[in-house]
Amino acid sequence: MEHSADFEARWAAGAAYLDGRFMPVGEAAIPVTDFGYRRSDVVYDVVGVWDGAFFRLDDHIARFRASMTALRLEPRETDEEIRAILHRVVATAGLRAAYVAMDCLRGVPSPGMPRHPAWARNYLMCFAVPWVSVASAEQMERGLHLVIAKEVRRIPPESVEPRVKNFHWGDLTRGLFEAQDAGADFAVLLDAEGNITEGPGFNVFMVKDGHVSTPARGGLDGITRDSVFELCAEMGYPAEARAIPAIEFTEADEIFACTTAGGIMPASRIEGRRMANDRPGPISTALRDAFWRRRSEGWHATPVDYGAAAT
Ligand code: PLP
Q1: Which of 17, 156, 181, 304 makes the best surface tag, with the fewest CB within 10 Å?
Q2: Predicted model pTM
Q3: pLDDT tens by residue, 141-177
Q4: Best residue among 176, 260, 288 to mutate for probing ligand 1, ranked by most atoms within 8 Å of CB
Q5: Distance CA 121, CA 18 (A)
Q6: Residue with the nearest Cα to atom 7 of ligand 1?
Q7: If you measure from the C-alpha of residue 216 to the centroid of ligand 1, how many angstroms do you get, rounded to a whole number?
C-alpha cells in the first residue's frame, strides 16, 4: 500500500502496540507507577525479522507465553492475537529488517487494594524498530573481545530463573561496565559454582578439538542456541550442553556468542588471550555463514503480512 510522506515520517522510527492501541513507537509510554517499571516486573521476548520474514516466530511466542505463565502474568491477548499484533507493528513501520519486542508488564497497583502484584491488571506492549544488533559491525568483523566477570556472578536460578526472559538485568549491566573497565566488549558471567552461564543478551558456545559445547544451565534457553544445535547436527559437528568451568572456557580454541539481535557472533579474544590468530575461528565462521545462508533460504521463516499495516 502507498502511504503519504507524512504517514511514513510518523512511523519510520517504528510502530508500537500498547495495551490495545497502535501508535508510533516514540509515542508509546507507560505509567511511572507501574510495577513493571518500579520493580522490573516484566517478562519479554524479542523476535527478529530479516528479509521480510520472522525467524522462528512461533517459538518466540511460545517462550513468551511460558515466561508469562511462570511469573503469573496474564494479559488479555491470546497467542493468536499476539501473532497478529507482531505482524501489524512490523507492517505498519514498513520494515524488512526489524527488532520486534513483546513485553508483558505487571501493571499499576489498584487503588484501595492490597499493594500486591496479584491485584494489578497485566498488559502487553509490543514494538518493531529497525534491526538492532547486540554487537557493532566492527566488533562482529574482528571478533568479540570477551572477559569473564570477576566482580559479579549471574543471579542464581533459585532467585530469578534466567529461562524466564525478564528485566532483572542488574548483574548483566554490572558485567558490561566491568568489561568496559577491562578494555573488552562484553563480560560472560559465572554461576555460584564457577561455571559459565551467559552474557548480556546472548548465549555462549565454546569449541575445543572440533567439539562444540554450551552451558546446560544458568542462562536463557536461547532460540538462536537451539538453531546452533540444528546447524551442528546438519554440519556434522558434535555438540552438547554441559557444565563448563571458567578455566576450560578460557582455554577454548574458539568461542562464539549467539542471539536474536546479531545471530552467531564469533569472539577473537577471551581474557585478553587471542584465539585463532585474533580472528573469528573456522568453526564459528562456518556456523555463522550457514546460519545466514539457511535464513536466506527461508529456514524457520514466517513472511510478514505487510497487508496488515495500520492505515
Ligand atoms: N541470554 C540472554 C540474557 C538474552 O537476553 C538473550 C536474548 O535476548 C539470549 C540469551 C539469546 O536468546 P535468543 O537466541 O532466543 O535471542
Answers
A1: 181
A2: 0.96
A3: 999 999 999 999 999 999 999 999 999 999 999 999 9
A4: 260
A5: 14
A6: 201
A7: 14
Q: Which atom of ligand 1 is nearest to the CA of 63?
A: 15
d(CA 145, CA 187): 9
pLDDT tens profile 263-272: 999 999 999 9
CB distance 265 to 51 below 8 Å? no
Strand order in the sheet with 53-55: 21-24, 15-18, 123-130, 98-105, 42-50, 53-55, 301-303
Q: How far is residue 158's CA from residue 155's CA, in Å, rounded to a whole number? A: 8
For residues 96 and 127, give the distance between their C-alpha atoms in angstroms, rounded to a whole number: 14
Residue 156 C-alpha cell reads as 542464581
**Closest listed residue to residue 291, CA positions, set 222, 206, 232, 208:** 232
User: Considering only CA atoms, which of 186, 206, 210 is closest in space to residue 196?
Assistant: 206
Residue 144 CA to ligand 1 center (angstroms) comes to 16
End-to-end CA distance of the chain: 9
pLDDT digits (tens, 9 = 90+) for 102-116: 999 999 988 888 889
